[in-house]
Specification:
This protein is mainly alpha-helical and 87 residues long. It has 2 helices and no strands. The two termini are 32 Å apart.
Amino acid sequence: MRRFTLPHRLYEALPALYAIAGLLTLFNLPNTLGWLSGLLLIGAGWQVWRMRYAYRSQRSRQRRSVRSPHHRPRTHGSDWHVRPQRF
């Protein structure tokens, strides 16, 4: 089976394209179904962006900790910053 991959530029633009499509739907379909569809598209774009951001920041932290020569493991409770929420 052949794997299908999107071009990198298109892949990176998808959250914005979802949001733009949602806004266009909101303004061009002034009924309940149009509003619901538009809001769902905007929400999907936001969620995809959040998931990518959380994953990339986690990967970045892991790479920094592996490369650091003075890496010391964190103990439970020393992690005072806010972590991304998972839904």
